[in-house]
Fold:
Amino acid sequence: MKFEDFKIMATASSAPDHVVTNDELATMMDTSDEWITQRTGIKRRRIATEETTSSMCTDVATQLTAQSDLTAKDIDLIAVATMSPDYLTPSVSAMVQGNIGADHAIAFDIDAACSGFVYGLHLVKQMLIANQQKNAILIGGETLSKLLDWSDRSTAVLFGDGAGGVLIRNTAVDKGSFISEDLRTLGNLGQYLTAGQTGNPSPFATDQQPFSPFFKMNGRRVYSFAVKNVPESINDALKQANLTADEVDCFVLHQANRRIVERIADELAVSMAKFPINIDEYGNTAAASEPILLDQLVKQKIIKRGDVIALSGFGGGLTVGTMIMKY
Structure:
């Protein structure tokens, strides 16, 4: 089996109906629309009121099968990238598998934070090869609003909820391919972005650390990490593919901060016209950000069959993942 034998057959996304504006946040904390917009590029975000990570991911999976000639029972593998699952167990992917009736699919979750979707592309490819399977669903889904301290303006203004995903088929057609990838983890920097500390309340623990769900982030260190490591990762993946940045039709980057994306475009010497942005409407949705943006671009026919796409996620871990593909 060749690396090029994998094709994205369909894209889909789902987000809560409830929209929270910067002006609304300004009534809850010491901030303003101007302050948030200038520093992040975010104007609005979707916030779950009754939706869950599993419900949004189930919606995405249902859309994906509806767009194809497949039924849920034709799906061999379901993977969900998330750092905000409904439970530690069952996994979100197992809940999706049960919800859609994909009885023959194996299912697992991936926790690589904002790089999770690209890490998932690599893992799904390897799993399809190892198990000689054909059809997989990969979803990035997050309910980050439940991990926010809504009195902390340094984090509460940044994040939103949503899910996006793709249907991947192991096929020999030549109209689509996974070309190259670059994955990297800088675990020595992981303390600069944390969330969901589980603690240890056991009566036998010598250090009874408390449960602390909220995001904690050193924004300057994460910014420096991103603007250095993401261009390096993209360039390394392009080198493997024997491509230049100018030959990429569209860069689908994790929507963490508009200024970060602008800086990455500058480092690559590529026009921002090739770096679409939706952070203004969705905020940072972690593992969901790239597939939500990808689905929008496909639906709007900005990305077309045959286009060369660079997907890149970066964030908690700290991690970076880049995939070069021909859509």
Remarks:
- Residues 4 and 177 are 5 Å apart (CA to CA).
- The domain at 6-170 is CATH 3.40.47.10 (Peroxisomal Thiolase; Chain A, domain 1).
- The longest helix spans residues 219-241.
